[in-house]
Amino acid sequence: MGLIFLLLHLTLYFDAGVWLIRQASYYFSIPSGIPRSTNLVHLAFVAYGARASGVWLGRFTSWGGRSAVFARLPAGGTASSELDCLGEVKNDQESPSEIPPSLLSSLPRTLLDWRNTDVYPPRKVWDPLQAWFATRGLHLFKADDPNSAFFGAVFPTDPTIRAPDGNYIYTGNPESCLFQFTRCQKPIHCFAQTVDGRYVLIRLIAKGDFGHEELDILQKVAMGPLSFLGENHCLPMAQQLTLQDMTFGVFPAVTEGFGFPWYHAISEVFDATIQLLEALNFLHRHLIAHRDIGADNILINFVGGKRPITPDLPFRSLFPVRYYFIDFELAVRFAETSPVEDRVVTGLPIKRLGSDDPDDYGRDIAPEMLSDAPYNPFQTDVFQMGIMFYNYFRLLKEDAPGLVAIFERMAAAEPNARPTAGEALDMVRACEKTLTRAQLALPVPEASLPDRNYTERLKRKVAKAKAKSEALVAFQNAI
């Protein structure tokens, strides 16, 4: 038996080594327009995963770039073979007897019910599944004492065994690397700790008949061969777990970081915009429209500790920052065989969640999204990203006017006046080359972000509630 395991480990290391050689050859043949740092950090994370992939029973190895679970696959594997390699993870359909029916029946009935549950803190929704996840090497973070000042926060079950995960940690106190608390902002999310001490996020992706569009997209770009590409900035999904009609995805626990800490130099702005346009171009080339682009759906390879709050600390220059897209629950994917004219949608993306109210969408809305006519979702993606870039970096109009002009073109009211994601990416790269090293080192003035007309939205909500109440009274009087 020992000899068999030795041969297995040698095979895994050989496969990982072959994969690294391929990635290295890719890195050293990068076209001049692509920032090498982006691909080099991706290669470094894969190397870390290859080193750790010898832990055969530990499915979680390296985060940061892509899950090293796939570095253990035979060369030339397909997306199907990679999912098959996960064995019981792919076909993890558990019998009802594994969890008492009374506990299963206490869970929200649908995906929408789970999203909109009024249980607080949201972590409590996951209590019936705690033992089930533990048998799969995932220990759910515990909820804090409801009487404490941090009500709603969650904590690792054993913060003293936190393991390095390839992500950057900034801290002035080494002990704070061992402890982290965070808030579960959505009931469909739950933080957990793996058996080897890594922090992950579990997300309920699909339940019943809902959520399978997102699952299909994640299986396409967050798992399998495409997940290894440097231009792919989708947060990798390391595991897919199934319990009855529920499908869960396991992701690295990383952090929002598009707008905080603020940018130290203009070069950091170019790095962020190039990476995110690269990400959007990758999705669009694979006929995926995100339809929910905002700063809160962009994460960076940072976790734990405390980020610097002193303005003169160049946080984004301390390590090779990699930006990730998350949250594909409103996304749409078109078949490669579909006619171009059929790659359209209608209405607001929020319709998928049972609402047609613009106030519930919470995103910048392109003019065509409010009409009843079909529109191109790839163009609205460009619009949303352009508005986001402009809102954050519009004060660069004096030091980098060409860059701001690109953002304005992306946010044009006329859809056909907007560049594609690929065209915008080429424009930004060309613009960066026109600036000197001294210009790229200039500070970035921080703009105040628009409040999305919160007061007006509140007035509309109050008016709708009043109208609904009056209609109910009128109906009752009519009876």
TrEMBL record:
Signal peptide stretch: 1-16
One MF annotation (Gene Ontology) recorded for this entry: ATP binding
GO cellular component: cytoplasm; nucleus
Entry's transmembrane regions: none
SUPFAM superfamilies recorded: Protein kinase-like (PK-like) (SSF56112)
GO terms (BP aspect): mitotic DNA damage checkpoint signaling
Superkingdom of this protein's organism: Eukaryota
Keywords: Signal
Annotated Protein kinase domain residues: 140-479
PANTHER family cross-referenced by the UniProt entry: OVARIAN-SPECIFIC SERINE/THREONINE-PROTEIN KINASE LOK-RELATED, PROTEIN KINASE DOMAIN CONTAINING PROTEIN
Protein's UniProt name: Protein kinase domain-containing protein
Native source species: Hydnum rufescens UP504
